[in-house]
C-alpha cells in the first residue's frame, strides 16, 4: 500500500475520532454540555490527537531507520571482490538501488511480473536490456551479485513497508480505541489537549537545533570521508588548487582562502566607509525629508537577490573595469576579477553596514550629544569624538557580520570572480573563492566517492566554521563592550 | 572673553567675534568636509542602486519583444499527413524534422515573390528562421489538422541573430566576424522588415515557454522556471509558516528560562547568519543522498529554502507576538481562559498581520535565493512542465534565479538579454510581494 494511502487512512480515522469523541462526551453528560469538564470540542480533539500523532511520529522514525537497516543487511551480501572492482561500497550500493528501482518500474509497466522480478537470473535474462525497455538506463551490465542483492533489497524493503503499514494502522486504531474508551464527562480533556499541543510547539522549536545538527553532521561525515582519501595537511596547507577527475588532484585550501579574503577585503573597503558615512549622515545631518526618501532607497539594495548583483558584475561592472582600468593600466584583460566581485559585493553590503550602524548611532543618548555641543564642539567633532567611540563596539560587530556575509557570499563571486585558484596581488586578475569551488565541485554529475567531489564538504565545513566564528565574535564584542545608558 | 591657545596660556582675544579666526575657519571647513563625505556616501549608495537597475532594465527590457517572420506556408498534405485522414494521432509520427524543408522552401518562395534580389543560397535564407520554427509549425498543425493542404499565414520565430539586428545587438561589423549571420542576410532582413514580413512584437512565450537549447535563444522562456519557483514557494509556505509560528509561540509564550531554551535561541540566531550555500550542502547530503529524494525537484528546493526562511519567520513572529500588550493576555486569563486559550484565541489573531508580513518577506527572500539550489541540481536543463501538485513537487523543474544563472553560462550573447529579462520578471515578483507586505502592515498595523 503506498504511503500516501496509509497516511490518508490515519488522518481519516482522526477525523472520525474527533466526531465520535465529541458525541460520546456529550452523550455521557446526558446532552447537557455544561456538566462536562471541558468544552465538547476538546474531547474530540483529544481522540484525534491520540489517533494521529503517535502513528505519524512512528512513521517518521521508521522511514529514517528502515533504509539504514536494509542497506546494512544487503551490503553484507556483496562480496569484497565486487566492491574492489567498482571502486567503493557506495558505488555498488547505488547500482543495487538503481536495479531495484528499475525492477519496480518494470513491474509497474507490466514488462515483468512480480514472480519474474523475484526469480530472474543474469544467466538467463539480459536484465540491462529489460530495464532499458522500461526507460531505466543502467551504466553497465548487471552482475549476478548486484542482481541478487537488488532482489534481496526489494524483498526486505517490501516486507519492511508491509510491516510498517500494519504497525501504523494498528497504532492508530489502538490510540483511537483507548482515547475513545477514556472519554467521559469527568475526563480532563482540555488539560490533555493543551499538554499535547505544548509538546508539539516544543518539537517545532527544536527544528532549529536539528537543522544545525544536520548541517554539522552532514559536513563532518563527508569531510571525514574526504580526509580518508586525501591527507589533511595537503588540504589545509596546500598552495595549489588543481582538481582533475582522472586522479592526482591537488586540492589545497590556501589559494581559495586567499581569493575569498582578498575579495572580502575589497568589499569591506567599499562597504564600510560608504555605509558608515551614510549612516552618520542619515542619523545626524539629514533632514526628515531626505531621510524618509534615501533610507528606503538604500534598504532596497538589501532586498535585491544576489543573483542580480552577480549579473550586474558579469555584464556591467566587469567589462567596465576591464576597458577603463585593467587594460589601459596593463594589469590584465579579464573581465572577471577580484576587483569586479569585490566592488559589487561592497555595494551589496552597504545597506547591511549602514542600517546596523544607523540603529547603533541612534541608540547613543541625546544627552551625550548635548553635552558635547555645550562644550563648543561642532557637529562633526561630536560625531568623531563622542558618538563614534560610544557606538564603536556595535559598529565593529556590524563590520564583522558584514565580513561573514562577504565570505559566505556565492552568486556574486561565481559570476564575477573567476574560476582559477591563484595567489596573486593584482586585483584585476581572476581568482576564485571557497564558495565558487563548492558550487563547481558539486554541480553536475558527481561521483560522491571521489575526493574531487568530497572536497566540497570539507570546504563547506571550513566556511561554516569561519562564518560561525565571526558571528560569535561579533556577538561577544557587542555584549562585552556595549555601553549601558540608563 | 578668552580662548585657550595650543600653548595653554590664556590670551586676550583682540579680534571681533563676528570675524572668524583661522582656527574657527579651519574647524568650520572640516565640518563642511565631513558633511560632504556623508552626502557623498549617500549619493554613492543611491547611484549604485540606480546604475544597477538601469543596467538590468536596459539589457533586459528588449527580451519581452521578439522578432517574427511572417510568410505564407503551403502545408503539403503528402508530407504532413501521408495516410490522408487528418487524424492527429497518426500525424504525430511525422517528426519535426520533416517540417524543416517545408518552412525553408516557403520562405525562399516568399522572398522571390516579394521581388527581392539576393545571392544567398536557400540554406542561408533558411538559417534566418529559428531552428524552433519547424516545431512551432508542427504544434500549430497538430492542434488544427484541418489546415493541412491549405496555405496559411503564420508568424514564425526569427533566428536569434536576426532578432539581434533589430535590438541593436548585431551590427554590420559584428556580422562580418560572425559565423552565424552574414552582412547579406542582415541587408535582406532590413528589406523584409520594410516589406512588413519581419515584425517585432511582444512575446508572451518568453514568460510561458520552457527553456530552449543553447543554439536557439529566441525560443527560450521562463515557463518551467516560474512553475518551479511557485511550487517551491508553496512548499516553503506549507512548512515554514506552521513550524515557524509554533516555534515562536513556544519560545515567546511558554518556554521556561533554561538551558534548552537558550540553546534554541542561539541556534536560531546562528542559522540566520549561516551562508546560504551551506544549506545547499545540507540539502544535498540529507535530502538527496541520505533520504533519497529526487534531484532537481521542487520539494527538495522547498525544504532547503524552508530551513533558510525559518529564522526570518521566527524573528518576525516573535516580534509581533511581543507587540501584543500583556493586558490582552491578562484580560483573557481573568475571565477564565487557560493560558493556551488566551494565546490561540486572543494573542495569535492580534499578531496575525505582523506574522503574515514577516512570512511574505521571508518568502521574497527565498524566491531570490540561488546558491543552495545550484547544489541540489536545479541547474539541470528541463523542458517538461512539472505535473500538478503533489506529484509535480517531485518532478524535475528549474527556478527563476537558477534559470538566470544557467543562461549566463551559455555562450550565445542573446542569452545575456534573456537573463536580464528573467531578472526583471523576478524583480517584478519581489516588488509585488514587498508591496503586499507594506500594504498589509499599513492596513492592519495596530498600535497600543
Number of helices of chain B: 19
Kindly provide the name of the CATH class of the largest domain in chain A. Mainly Alpha
Percent in helix of chain B:
55-70%
Low-confidence stretches of chain A: none
CATH topology of the largest domain in chain A: MetI-like fold
- Give the structural class of chain A: mainly alpha
Helical content band of chain A? over 70%
Task: Report the biggest beta sheet of chain A as strand number plus sense, adding barrel if it closes.
Answer: 2 strands, antiparallel
Q: Biggest sheet of chain A: strands side by side, in what order?
A: 1-2
- What would CATH call the architecture of the largest domain in chain B? Orthogonal Bundle
SSE inventory with pairings:
The complex is a heterodimer of chains A (486) and B (448).
Chain A: H1 3-28, H2 40-77, H3 80-86, H4 89-109, H5 114-119, H6 127-133, H7 144-182, H8 189-205, H9 207-229, H10 232-237, E1 241-242, E2 250-251, H11 254-285, H12 288-303, H13 306-329, H14 338-363, H15 366-374, H16 379-408, H17 411-416, H18 434-442, H19 451-481
Antiparallel strand pairs in A: 1-2
Helix pairs in contact in A: 1-2, 1-7, 2-7, 2-8, 4-7, 9-19, 11-14, 11-16, 12-14, 13-14, 14-16, 15-16, 16-19, 18-19
Chain B: E1 2-4, E2 10-12, H1 22-60, E3 65-74, H2 77-80, H3 88-91, H4 96-113, H5 122-126, H6 133-143, E4 151-157, H7 160-166, H8 172-177, H9 183-195, E5 198-202, H10 205-208, H11 223-254, H12 259-271, H13 276-290, H14 298-323, H15 326-334, H16 339-368, H17 371-375, H18 400-408, H19 414-444
Antiparallel strand pairs in B: 1-2, 3-4, 3-5
Helix pairs in contact in B: 1-19, 4-6, 11-14, 11-16, 11-18, 13-14, 14-16, 15-16, 16-19, 18-19
Amino acid at each position: 500500500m503506498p504511503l500516501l494511502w496509509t497516511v490518508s487512512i490515519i488522518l481519516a480515522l482522526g477525523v472520525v475520532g474527533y466526531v465520535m469523541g465529541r458525541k460520546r462526551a456529550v452523550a455521557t453528560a446526558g446532552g447537557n454540555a455544561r456538566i462536562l469538564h471541558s468544552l465538547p470540542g476538546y474531547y474530540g480533539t483529544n481522540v484525534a490527537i491520540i489517533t494521529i500523532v503517535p502513528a505519524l511520529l512512528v512513521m517518521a522514525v521508521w522511514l529514517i531507520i528502515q533504509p539504514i537497516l536494509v542497506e546494512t543487511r544487503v551490503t553484507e551480501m556483496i562480496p569484497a571482490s565486487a566492491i574492489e572492482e567498482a571502486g567503493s561500497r557506495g558505488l555498488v550500493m547505488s547500482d543495487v538501488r538503481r536495479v531495484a528501482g528499475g525492477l519496480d518500474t518494470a513491474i509497474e509497466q507490466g514488462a515483468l511480473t512480480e514472480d519474474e522480478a523475484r526469480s530472474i537470473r543474469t544467466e538467463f535474462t539480459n536484465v540491462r536490456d529489460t530495464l532499458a525497455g522500461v526507460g531505466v538506463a543502467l551504466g553497465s551490465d548487471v552482475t549476478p551479485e548486484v542482481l541478487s542483492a537488488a532482489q534481496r533489497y526489494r524483498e526486505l524493503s517490501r516486507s519492511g513497508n508491509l510491516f510498517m503499514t500494519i504497525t501504523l494502522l494498528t497504532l492508530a486504531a489502538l490510540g483511537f480505541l483507548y482515547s475513545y474508551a477514556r472519554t467521559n464527562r469527568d475526563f480532563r480533556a482540555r488539560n490533555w489537549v493543551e499538554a499535547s499541543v505544548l509538546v508539539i510547539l516544543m518539537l517545532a522549536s527544536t527544528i532549529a537545533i536539528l537543522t544545525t545538527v544536520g548541517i554539522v553532521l552532514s559536513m563532518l561525515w563527508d569531510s571525514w570521508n574526504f580526509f580518508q582519501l586525501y591527507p589533511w595537511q595537503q588540504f589545509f596547507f596546500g598552495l595549489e588548487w588543481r582538481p582533475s577527475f582522472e586522479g592526482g588532484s591537488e586540492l589545497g585550501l590556501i589559494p581559495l582562502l586567499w581569493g575569498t579574503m582578498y575579495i572580502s577585503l575589497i568589499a569591506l573597503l567599499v562597504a564600510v566607509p560608504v555605509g558608515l558615512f551614510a549612516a552618520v549622515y542619515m542619523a545626524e545631518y539629514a533632514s526628515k525629508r531626505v531621510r524618509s526618501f534615501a533610507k528606503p532607497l538604500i534598504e532596497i539594495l538589501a532586498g535585491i537577490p544576489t543573483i542580480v548583483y552577480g549579473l550586474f558584475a558579469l555584464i556591467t561592472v566587469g567589462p567596465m573595469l576591464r576597458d577603463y582600468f585593467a587594460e589601459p593600466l596593463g594589469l590584465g584583460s579579464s573581465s572577471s576579477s577580484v576587483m569586479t566581485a569585490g566592488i559589487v559585493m561592497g555595494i551589496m553590503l552597504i545597506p547591511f553596514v549602514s542600517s546596523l550602524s544607523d540603529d547603533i548611532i541612534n541608540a547613543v543618548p541625546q544627552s551625550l550629544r548635548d553635552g558635547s555641543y555645550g562644550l563648543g564642539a561642532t557637529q562633526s567633532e561630536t560625531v568623531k569624538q563622542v558618538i563614534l567611540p560610544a557606538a564603536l563596539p556595535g559598529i565593529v560587530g556590524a563590520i564583522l557580520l558584514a565580513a561573514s556575509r562577504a565570505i559566505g557570499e556565492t552568486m556574486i563571486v561565481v559570476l564575477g570572480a573567476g574560476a582559477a585558484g591563484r595567489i596573486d596581488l593584482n586585483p584585476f586578475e581572476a581568482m576564485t573563492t571557497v564558495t565558487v569551488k563548492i558550487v563547481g565541485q558539486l554541480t553536475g554529475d558527481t561521483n560522491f566517492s571521489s575526493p574531487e567531489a568530497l572536497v566540497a564538504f570539507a570546504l563547506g565545513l571550513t566556511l561554516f566554521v569561519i562564518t560561525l566564528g565571526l558571528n560569535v565574535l561579533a556577538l561577544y564584542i557587542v555584549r562585552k563592550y556595549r555601553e549601558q545608558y540608563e | 572673553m578668552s580662548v585657550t591657545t595650543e600653548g595653554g596660556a590664556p590670551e586676550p582675544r583682540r579680534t571681533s567675534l563676528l570675524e572668524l579666526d583661522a582656527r574657527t575657519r579651519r574647524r568650520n571647513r572640516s565640518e563642511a568636509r565631513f558633511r560632504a563625505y556623508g552626502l557623498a556616501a549617500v549619493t554613492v549608495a543611491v547611484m549604485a542602486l540606480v546604475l544597477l537597475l538601469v543596467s538590468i532594465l536596459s539589457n533586459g527590457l528588449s527580451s519581452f519583444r521578439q522578432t517574427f517572420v511572417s510568410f505564407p506556408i503551403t502545408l503539403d498534405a503528402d508530407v504532413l499527413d501521408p495516410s490522408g485522414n487528418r487524424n492527429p494521432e497518426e500525424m504525430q509520427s511525422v517528426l519535426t524534422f520533416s517540417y524543416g524543408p517545408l518552412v525553408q522552401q516557403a520562405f525562399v518562395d516568399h522572398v522571390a515573390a516579394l521581388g527581392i534580389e539576393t545571392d544567398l543560397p536557400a540554406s542561408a535564407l533558411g538559417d534566418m528562421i529559428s531552428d524552433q520554427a519547424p516545431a512551432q509549425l508542427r504544434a500549430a498543425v497538430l492542434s488544427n489538422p484541418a489546415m493541412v493542404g491549405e496555405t496559411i499565414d503564420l508568424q514564425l520565430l526569427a533566428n536569434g541573430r536576426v532578432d539581434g539586428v533589430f535590438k541593436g545587438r548585431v551590427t554590420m561589423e559584428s556580422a562580418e566576424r560572425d559565423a552565424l549571420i552574414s552582412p547579406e542576410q542582415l541587408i535582406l532582413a532590413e528589406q523584409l522588415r520594410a516589406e512588413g514580413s519581419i515584425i517585432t512584437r511582444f512575446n508572451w512565450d518568453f514568460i510561458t515557454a520552457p527553456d530552449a537549447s543553447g543554439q536557439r535563444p529566441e525560443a527560450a522562456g521562463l515557463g518551467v522556471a516560474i512553475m518551479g519557483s511557485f511550487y517551491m514557494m508553496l512548499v516553503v509556505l506549507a512548512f515554514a509558516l506552521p513550524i515557524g509560528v509554533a516555534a515562536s509561540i513556544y519560545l515567546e509564550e511558554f518556554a521556561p528560562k533554561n538551558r534548552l531554551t537558550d540553546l534554541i535561541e542561539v541556534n536560531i540566531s546562528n542559522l540566520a547568519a549561516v551562508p546560504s550555500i551551506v544549506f545547499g550542502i545540507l540539502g544535498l547530503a540529507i535530502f538527496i543522498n541520505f533520504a533519497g529524494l529526487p534531484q532537481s525537484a521542487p520539494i527538495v528546493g522547498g525544504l532547503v529554502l524552508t530551513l533558510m526562511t525559518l529564522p526570518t519567520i521566527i524573528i518576525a513572529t516573535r516580534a509581533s507576538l511581543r507587540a501584543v500588550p500583556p493586558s490582552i493576555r491578562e484580560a483573557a486569563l481573568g475571565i477564565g481562559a487557560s493560558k493556551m486559550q488566551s494565546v490561540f484565541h486572543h494573542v495569535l489573531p492580534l499578531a496575525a498581520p505582523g506574522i503574515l508580513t514577516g512570512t511574505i518577506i521571508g518568502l521574497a527572500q527565498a524566491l531570490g535565493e540561488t546558491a543552495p539550489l545550484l547544489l541540489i541540481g536545479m541547474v539541470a536543463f528541463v523542458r517538461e512542465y512539472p505535473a500538478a501538485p503533489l506529484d509535480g513537487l517531485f518532478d524535475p523543474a528549474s527556478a527563476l534565479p537558477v534559470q538566470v544563472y544557467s543562461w549566463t553560462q551559455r555562450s550565445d550573447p542573446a542569452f545575456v538579454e534573456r537573463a536580464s529579462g528573467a531578472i526583471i520578471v523576478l524583480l517584478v515578483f519581489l516588488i509585488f510581494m514587498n508591496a503586499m507586505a507594506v500594504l498589509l502592515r499599513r492596513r492592519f498595523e495596530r498600535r497600543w
